[in-house]
Amino acid sequence: MKNLVYFFVFFLHISSFSASEIDIDNEYIIKLSKKLSLLTIKKGNSDVISGAEVLNHDLNIYLLKFNKTLKEDKIIQFINHIPNLIHYYKNTKLNTRSCPPDDPSYFQQWNSKFMGFEDVWCYDLKGVSPLGDTIVLGVIDNGCNCDNPDINPNLFVNRKEIPDNDLDDDNNDYVDDYRGFNAAIGKGDKHFVENHGTNVLSIAGAVGNNNNFISGAAPHIKMLMCTATDVSDLIKCYSYFIKMKKDYLSFNGKSGAYINVATLSQGLDNAMPDDYPDWCSMYDLCGEQGILCFGATTNNNEFIDEVGDLPGLCPSNYLVIVTNTDRSDTRAYSGYSKINVDIAASGELVPVIDLNNNVQLSSGTSLSTPQVAAGAAFLNQFCEKYNAVCKSNPVQSVLEMKNIILQGGKSKPELANEISSGKRFDVMGSFNLLLEYCGVISAKNDIIISSFNTHGILQYDLKLRQFGVYSVDIVNLLGKRVFSQSFNYNGQPILDQKIEVYGLQSGQYLVVLRVEDEAIAKKFILIN
């Protein structure tokens, strides 16, 4: 049986953080209460110190580099004999604040870096909402190579349906929709094998960080494919998405699909809403079920208000129209309208997977649009408050997400007179707005030790001021970590976390919460 005494003593602020820190051997940062010259520190200690540097004169912060042959305990012993020492800690490599995947063609994906995907991927929760729903992005296109190994794992599978038995097993009025629906045929999931749809699916949701091809914008979100080749097919596809969402909400997730976002990279140039009124009406029906729709404007360099464009001119509050920009954040050869085009996205000469399982560069609003839609689907992973609204008030959830997408973009002077928002999509900006909306962020980071017990369990709560990766360590007075765990904060309370400490020797320790540019530490004394 162990008796443990603990004290909450002080905070330490340390200048580096990562989920997996890399300490620099034999380098320590020290802080003194009084100034000390480097000559004084180094005098007579050439066998110990290989280098010294003043980091900040006002705060008396120094970097000491010790000879590589010295063991850690000797270094600590030396530091503790330096006059007026306040504290010390190891120098540590900084990590970049992004999470680039290892896919071999990712180096070509400038678009992902431009729009902040590389940053938000650090917080990916594998495609599940805080309420446990598998998030689904509805994709309408002309077909796909659905067997591509980077696309196929992220295609939504309707588990209530038995494939290829010519029956409507889940009673949703669609026969054999096991892996989506081919509206052009009228039944089944045998999608036409087409290059365009393959491009779209890959840039939206190719599996990421699997050392294969590229990474899609939402690399763990499921995609529900619907094949359409004409306007009647398009209406059937939207109707299919609506039915799947209705069933999901009606049967408490036991049927249907949790579709909150749908994307379309097809359209009609020089067409007006009055020419195809039922097409435009589908967006209001989708919005009523909590589905925010994204549509690509034309790839012609045209003022769409005058020449016409569908879906670009459809007058629905539940539709976001996207145009295309290049590396300079200038609109590429594509449609524009200060009233009807909502936002731009980076889709010029970007890598996609083609029909023959090759990576090729391609361009167009067809590629800009699914990235924005996938970004919206990706954001459904975070905020319990928002996901609750998705179920209690679907219409409101669509309007909230549309606002988050448009307001979170980066303002670009080049776009100010060409599109309504004047912005290029930025998923990280939208992510930060979502956090604000959710109200799940604390005013400051803190670790609160709530208890020890006689079985050697240290219990703590966390208060956190932003989403992301955090670590909690136990460190001894030599600066050595004896325990470490990391986790991804997604807005859910982190309470009553437990660490077993009974295997440690008696003595003084720090429990340290590390987050980005600071660490918050509290001292406790372990008495066996």
Describe this entry's structure for a reader.
The chain has 528 residues and is α/β, with parallel strands linked by helices. It folds into 3 domains: 1-22 and 442-528, Immunoglobulin-like (Sandwich); 23-92, 2-Layer Sandwich (Alpha-Beta Plaits); 110-438, Peptidase S8/S53 domain (Rossmann fold, 3-Layer(aba) Sandwich), CATH 3.40.50.200. It is 23% helix and 27% strand. It has 12 helices and 24 strands. The chain has helices at residues 38-42, 72-80, 110-114, 117-120, 195-205, 231-250, 277-288, 304-307, 365-379, 384-392, 394-407, 427-438, and strands at residues 23-32, 49-56, 61-66, 85-92, 135-141, 181-182, 222-227, 258-264, 268-269, 292-296, 309-310, 319-325, 343-346, 350-353, 359-362, 410-411, 423-424, 446-452, 457-463, 468-476, 481-489, 494-500, 507-515, 518-526. A 7-stranded parallel beta sheet has the order 6-7-5-8-10-12-13, with helices on both faces. It has a 4-stranded antiparallel beta sheet with strand order 2-3-1-4. It has a 4-stranded antiparallel beta sheet with strand order 21-20-23-24, with no helix packed on it. Helix 9 runs parallel beside helix 12 and helix 11 (394-407) crosses helix 12 (427-438). It is elongated. Residues 1-21 have low confidence and may be disordered.
